[in-house]
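Chain A, query sequence.
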Amino acid sequence: MNWIKSRKLPAAEAIKHNGRPCLTLENLWNSLHSSFNTALHQQVNLNILNEIDYKPTQKWNPFSKFKFKSAISKCNDSSAPGPDKLSWYHLKLIIKNDECLSRIIDIANTCINLGHWPKYFKRSTTIVISKPNKSSYDHPKAFCPIVLLNTLGKLIEKVVAERLQFIVASNNFIHPSQLGGLKFKSTADAGIALTHIVRSGWAKGRFTSSLAFDISQFFPSLNHNLLVLILEKAGLNLKVMAFFANYLIQRSTNYLWNNLSSPMFNVNIRVSQGSALSPILSTLYLSLLLYILEKRFKNLKIPISILSFVDNGLFIAQDKSFDISNLHLFCSYNILSKLLDSFELVIKHSKTEIFHFSRSQGVFNPPPLDLSPLGGPILWPKDLWKYLGSIFDRKLFFHKHIDHYANKAISTVKCMKLLGNLLWGISPLQKCLLYRCCALPIALYSFQLWYYNKAPASYHMKILNKMQRRAVIWILRAFKTSPLEGIEAITSIIPMRFHIQKLAKRSQICLFKLLNNHILKTLSDDSPS
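Chain A, predicted structure.
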């Protein structure tokens, strides 16, 4: 049975670009190329960099064998190969030979020292896949480009990316509010930070209002000239800057649409979504924007907090009046729009949302936020708000959140029944492993938002125990009336309350391992000096 099937894209004639159907393959390739490279002819105001100070220049040491072995050990053997058709499995076999590994390290060190990235590594194949949950797939922006690079070049990029992140993190160039594209930062961290800010505001008698926005076509719109200058501001030395200046130019790719392949196109803008350097380079690009934005808010005395996860941003305003909070959010949105113009970026107004947090018991009817003077919509408050996968309600009870993910975990358990065949089925040991690895992490997604010291969690535990009970009954094929404690003991599955306590203690320990400028470290009152 084929468990995985390729999803066919629509016919080329169904795609419209600038209101016209793509009647020929040439029209299709040109429409894809222009849509995925929107900043091709845009000029960015480089003087914007004058608002940011230079960081001290950091030394760049030669690469070691350990770093390469560590990087390749995390690679999935089943990942799609690039134009060289070399899989990670075969490259791992090659690297086991010390002489081959030494030659690869020599290539990486020579590329940095000469400030050159070989043209062979600049060729790529761009796979076009459809974005999920789109109402229509008749325009190029309903599809996402995934870049497949040469495998050896990807390995070197992984090592370079890890070194680059270490340098910019050690000199505090990354903005603390940027929580995406970096190690030791996640969507759960963004949710924890937001929850902490909301509850801190309540302790001071203030309402909290949040305005979420999305930067449209962010990755295809990154300007290479500006990116190189940002690296200079971050404290990279001249030879590393020369390497990245050469790495970003004279790149080429061909597009794959179903079984059709395009000719090669020059790509001298954007950061490839598929490169190991893409997350850290995009984070550096956004950090510059966040620093400038924060500086302008401070100069104008606008009390706004910022959170960002890659291209998804969040403004947070706190006041005793929703009208004043809306005014602050309106001004912030206006400043952001003008700043993005300098970066040749735009906000996707259709994804802009507002949400208010309040513990008031009476009628809750906050005023809408009218962004129409700025080209945006009129935003009406909602009862529920989904942000980075977490479902928020205005009182931070997270009942809908736990309902959603518990049901999702139960659905996952039901789907696991399909994995057994008519002859053998799945053993209880395999079922238990599947539950622990696939269903339980779904049910406990962002549990830190609702499980903390003295928090009322009876409802959450009730729902999670029901979910675990159904899973354990499936594992043992037991009677529905079986006591939960007994069947949990037979399957060696930890009771839910003890399992969450274990995870909570681990997450608290991880807090002490974070960098001093991590947002959770700065928000924590118990952070060590």
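The radius of gyration is 25 Å. The first helix runs from residue 25 to 36.
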